[in-house]
Fold D-xylose 1-dehydrogenase (NADP(+), D-xylono-1,5-lactone-forming).
Amino acid sequence: MSSPSCSTLPTLHWGVIGTGLAASWFATDLNLPRANAQARHVIQAIGSSSIEKGETFAKTHLPGVDVTIYNTYEQVYADTKVDIIYIATPATFHKKNCLDAIAAGKHVLCEKPFTITAQESRDVIAAAKAKGVFLMEGMKIFEDKVIGDVNRVLCDLSMYMGQLDQIRSRTAPSENPAIPPGIMLEAGVYPVTWGLLALEKQPGCGEERPQILAASKLCNGVDISTSMIMHYPASGQQAVLSMSMETKLASNFCRIEGTKGHIDVEGLVTSHPESFTIFHKSERPESGIPFAFNKAGQKFKFDQEGWGFHYEADAVALDIAAGRQENAIMPCSETIRVMEIVDEVRRQVGVRFPQDDQ
Ligand SMILES: NC(=O)C1=CN([C@@H]2O[C@H](COP(=O)(O)OP(=O)(O)OC[C@H]3O[C@@H](n4cnc5c(N)ncnc54)[C@H](OP(=O)(O)O)[C@@H]3O)[C@@H](O)[C@H]2O)C=CC1
Ligand SMILES: O=C1OC[C@@H](O)[C@H](O)[C@H]1O
């Protein structure tokens, strides 16, 4: 199928809020020349804490692009040329940023973790519904099932996080709300999503809710290392998930095990799978050995450019062009379901935030 010509593609004008790491990857990806783009993306405006920071961001990540720089986020929400806001601020601010953008009538794509609690997510989703705008959590991921019935998933997202020293030295989360509110929120949403995608036939569609078992290493009120199990009592399926700020994930960060073999998923981080290797179980045990080995694995590489934000942005553009308020693959109900699991893990390990009392 030939790709649609540029003039027939839906066009979205983006306002980007925050100029950190996620925003830099997003801007770079949306500016990539792509033969198979499904939409045209214009980064119309950048909202930053200072004009100088915004200009440096634009010069570095959007060279040659004519973009308006504002030194308040409110001016981006008020810009009539902007259709949609991409929120790339620390998670503590997502609820306010989303509500402000929605109140201004803008569509919203908000980075993971969507908010701090499931209740905050519900509040934001209700506001978007009432206003009639599109809303989606930025969650880039993939899935594949060619190994029979999936019965177990192992997934880790561990990163040496620069903020660990700040967490160690602060006395309360309110002291610096921009520091990630624990590894479960900052990273855990990915392993949880991998577990749900791999174990459930159609994630979130009336299937059994998994039991959650979790334990964490805490530091000054937040979890810096968390291990958890999502267990489905009826089928016995399990996701064994881990995340830590004190080590780095292995390159094969996810293993999906089925009745006929397993899949290793490899990549730099859980949000950026680069390849997967399928291992099929041998038909019969090796002679003299009472258990079966796997046959040699077959590796498949993803033919992808950039960080993958452009695929996410294309999906948003197609939804908005079709008049939809949600995305079918990453619906708001899935955001709430994952946030409820995160809430439950935090409850079990004893991490509480002021947002839990609001
Ligand atoms: N999908 C993905 O692959 C990734 C997602 N993320 C997610 O994106 C979000 C942002 O993370 P990341 O880009 O790493 O964060 P950074 O710290 O690199 O950047 C956050 C930006 O938010 C703005 N900001 C607003 N208020 C504050 C504040 N009080 N303190 C500090 N910065 C503030 C700043 O921009 P300014 O001063 O210009 O306003 C800052 O540059 C998080 O939710 C994170 O989980 C992060 C990395 C990758
Ligand atoms: O979302 C994420 O994925 C990639 C990581 O490098 C990043 O810090 C994390 O927040």
